[in-house]
Amino acid sequence: MDSQGREVSYYSELKGDMVFLFLKDVLDGYSVYTLKLNYTLNKETQIRSKTWSFTTGKGRTIQWLFAQYDEFMLHPGSKLPIKLVASYDDGTSGTPNSPIAYSSSSPAGLKVSADGMLEGRKPGSYKLTFISGKCVTRCQ
Asked: What superkingdom heads the lineage (predicted)?
């Protein structure tokens, strides 16, 4: 589980009496993670539990944010969730885990919520800005 209470996906593999855990995605940098493992020993029915936390190091950094659309058209009253892909400094890309700030060049014409939901209000041409750390991306 990450510091915001979100589950972290993983695979597990049992080899003899050892359990190996493999993460499905790269962990965020400078973040605290807590692992809780419930298990039973061979030939026992009692459930045992171990919990520990760790903090990651620097991690990867977002270099670019890309919107799923280069341009889009919304009619007044219609909504569209904006989906972003992050390109990282380690050559990987994927859905960003770090917080994204969204803004519109004119909220009176195009509203954007904190979670990236766009809402058309008035006809016009508007620009969106996405910010994560030092990465700033704009699209129209």
From this structure: Bacteria
Residue ranges making up the domain that contains 109: 62-139
Q: Hey, what are 103's tokens?
A: 């803004």
Mean pLDDT calculated for residue range 81-104: 88
pLDDT for 27-83, tens place per residue? 888 889 998 888 888 888 999 999 999 999 888 888 888 888 778 888 999 999 988
In a domain? residue 101: yes
C-alpha distance from residue 68 to each of 63, 71, 86, 110, 140 (Å):
16, 9, 11, 17, 12
User: Greatest CA separation found in the chain?
Assistant: 70
Mean pLDDT value of segment 17-32 = 85
In a domain, 81, yes or no: yes
Q: Please, what sign has the CA dihedral across residues 72, 99, 134, 103?
A: positive
- Integer Cα distance of 11 and 69 in angstroms: 33
- Give the Cα separation of 31 and 38 in Å (integer): 23
Instruction: Say which residues have a Cβ less than 8 Å from residue 98's Cβ, sequence separation at least 6.
Output: 28, 62, 132, 133
Q: What's the predicted TM-score (pTM) here?
A: 0.64
